[in-house]
Amino acid sequence: MKRLIYRILFLLVVFFMTAYGSVLAEDAPTLYNSYDGVVIGARAIGMGEAFVGLADNADVVYWNPAGLIQLPVNMFSIGFNVQTITKEDINEVFSQDPLKGGKLIYLSFAGNQGGLTWRPLSSFKQNTYIEDTSTNTQTWEEKEIRINEFLLSIGVPYTENMNVGFNLNYLSGSLAVSSKSKTGGVWNEPSANVSSGQGFGLDFGMLYKMTPFMNLGIMCQNLAAYMYWDDYARDKLPLNLRIGTSLRLSNLLTFAYDFERRFYQNREDLEMYHLGMEHLFFKSVAIRYGIYGTDWNDPKQVTYTVGMGYFKDNYFVDIAMRKYFVNLAPDEVVPVYSDEIIYTYLCTLTIPF
Description:
Helices cover about 10% and strands about 55% of the residues. The protein is mainly beta. A hairpin with a 6-residue loop joins strand 12 (about 255-265) and strand 13 (about 270-280).
């Protein structure tokens, strides 16, 4: 049975890669983070996004599909970005957000054998004005990127102490670019292009129980993932590798640690370190704390998180808050962080079905 599943997955990936393998000369005008989306799950976020080695709730499809085996019942989960509060210009804050502060983050159906998830990766609109005084030219450009991802997931018990999981990903998107320019006070002919695209990918996850109290998790997102646009060359999605551990000191206290590295095509790779804890009270209330960042010695590169959850009879309500500074110039060699602190509040609801 296991061999049959692996062969089917392999054949599907080969088919997708060959059936949509045409390559055009011009690169798609997407952004470096157009395929990142946002992190899902208020519980994981409250724990500093350290969840790969834990992976025991309805959000495992995103964090580690090998954790599907741990789910006691079928679950439906929905996540929201409730509010963003800051004294900073909100347009500057959202200028690097692929969802532009969109409220709905994901929908997921998951059980102990499989799952189905939808999440938006990009819902982005950008206006750019460029003035060239040497040629007396003014150019206005508008770019709109919309990309959605659908994940079909499966979890398989590989050995007594190890589970593996896979996500088959389908992406659907549209990319619109329009521009107009004025030279010497005279308007040039405007241009516009609307391109649709679709993509396919594969994720792999592993969860290994080292002791009854300690797990090791590995998650490879976009292990083989490409987006094919009608009028542009294909985009290779950034590989995201996560390795994490979780330690339950008792039924009331859990610690988790993740190391994350994103491999981008046209910019420097991103490394992040995540640490979180969860403390249970009254067997139905959880308090969570977390920290993550690229350099914990620089306060502007560190994000602090707190969260709270209530659960009963497989019904869950989780909330989380992030406290951070946003990098307003991610494409520059030297980052430029906001002067004001940003607070983001998120909520996840989970019900059995």
